[in-house]
Every structure is written in structure tokens, then in C-alpha cells.
């Protein structure tokens, strides 16, 4: 099959979205005509932000990009991609551990749907240590994370921490 990759998917929980996520989103949006941001909804996992809050934060952080579409779905990512004519998954990688994990996922996705390709974008070195989990962990100790997340996220994080007091 000789098909151009005009649509791609970048999926994650984004709890919360970080500057590292935004870096990958901005760079991928320059490569593809349409980049869908797949926000994973796991009812078994209690996140810091609700699903709706995560979607709204992503919308506000990506409003300057005109080829972004934010979606959610149930089931396998490769099934969603197949049903929506998406042939490319975008994954950000920060470390060797990320590469090993993402490579396994890419192979599994390829096994489940041979038409799916996975493209790895190495993270910008200034964001290579950032993860949503780490942001939440250090925030519990009242650390300053303003240079690690977008301004909208920082405000939302501060509002969440006020609600816990």
C-alpha cells in the first residue's frame, strides 16, 4: 500500500499535560496535516484531573495550532485508528527505558494492525526528565513547577492544591 501519512495520533492520559507533551504535539503538528490528541479515559484509575478537565487543559494549551483535534475512545488504539483512517502513531521518547517500552508497544500495535506505523520523536533535552507523575509527586511537596507545565496547567494545579487544604 502506497499511502501518505496525513493523519496521526498522539495518545496519552495527559494528567496533566506538560511542556514535554506540548513539545511533541507542536513538532508533530508540523509533520502531519491533522494530529489527533487521544485522551485516554481509564475509569479504574483516579487521576488528579477529571477526564473533562484534561481535555479542556489540552484545548487551551493547543489553541494556537489549527490542525489539532482532541478525541477520546474506548477500546484498542489501533482499532480507533483503523476506524478513523489514521495510519501513524506518534510517541515521544525521553530515555532508553521509554524506547524499550515504546518499541514493544509499536511491535504489538503492528501485530494487531499491520497498516499502523509508529514514529518516535525524541523529546527536547530540556524536557527529558519531565513526566506527569513526577510533576504530581513534587507538587505534593509544594515544589515550583512553573517551568515544566504550561501556564494554564500551573493555574489548574494551584487550584487543585487549594482544594486539598
Write the layout of secondary structure elements.
Blueprint: E1 7-12, H1 19-31, E2 34-39, H2 51-61, E3 68-71, H3 77-83, E4 88-93, H4 96-112, E5 117-122, H5 132-139, H6 151-164
Parallel strand pairs: 1-2, 1-4, 2-3, 4-5
Describe the structure.
The chain has helices spanning 19-31, 51-61, 77-83, 96-112, 132-139, 151-164, and strands spanning 7-12, 34-39, 68-71, 88-93, 117-122. It is of the alpha/beta class and 165 residues long. The chain has a single domain (7-164), classed as HUPs (Rossmann fold), CATH 3.40.50.620. It has a 5-stranded parallel β-sheet with strand order 3-2-1-4-5, with helices on both faces. The protein starts with 6 loop residues before the first strand and ends with a helix.
Strand order of the largest sheet: 3-2-1-4-5
Query: What is the CATH C-level name?
Result: Alpha Beta
Q: How can the largest sheet be summarized?
A: 5 strands, parallel
Report the count of strand segments.
5
Q: What's the CATH H-level superfamily name?
A: HUPs
Quote the average pLDDT: 90
Stretches where pLDDT is under 50 for at least 5 consecutive residues are none
Gyration radius, in Å? 16 Å
Would you tell me the structural class of the helices and strands? alpha/beta
Estimate the global geometry from the Cα principal axes.
Answer: globular
Distance between the termini: 57 Å
- The third-level CATH topology is Rossmann fold
Q: Helix tally?
A: 6
Residues in helix, %: 40-55%
Strand content: 15-25%
CATH architecture annotation name: 3-Layer(aba) Sandwich
Protein name: Phosphopantetheine adenylyltransferase
Subcellular location: Cytoplasm
Pathway: Cofactor biosynthesis; coenzyme A biosynthesis; CoA from (R)-pantothenate: step 4/5
Pfam families: CTP_transf_like (PF01467)
Amino acid at each position: 500500500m502506497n499511502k501518505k501519512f496525513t493523519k496521526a495520533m498522539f495518545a496519552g492520559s495527559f494528567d496533566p499535560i506538560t511542556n514535554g507533551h506540548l513539545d511533541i504535539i507542536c513538532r508533530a503538528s508540523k509533520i502531519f496535516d491533522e494530529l489527533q490528541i487521544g485522551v485516554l479515559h481509564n475509569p479504574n484509575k483516579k487521576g488528579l484531573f477529571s477526564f473533562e478537565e484534561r481535555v479542556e487543559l489540552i484545548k487551551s494549551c493547543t489553541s494556537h495550532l489549527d490542525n489539532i483535534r482532541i478525541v477520546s475512545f474506548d477500546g484498542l488504539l489501533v482499532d480507533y485508528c483503523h476506524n478513523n483512517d489514521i495510519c501513524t502513531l506518534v510517541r515521544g521518547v525521553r530515555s532508553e527505558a521509554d524506547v524499550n517500552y515504546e518499541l514493544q508497544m509499536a511491535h504489538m500495535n503492528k501485530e494487531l494492525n499491520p497498516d499502523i506505523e509508529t514514529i518516535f520523536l525524541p523529546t527536547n533535552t530540556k524536557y527529558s526528565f519531565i513526566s506527569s507523575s513526577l510533576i504530581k509527586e513534587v507538587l505534593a511537596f509544594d515544589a515550583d513547577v512553573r517551568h515544566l507545565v504550561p501556564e494554564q496547567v500551573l493555574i489548574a494545579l494551584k487550584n487543585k492544591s487549594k482544594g486539598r487544604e
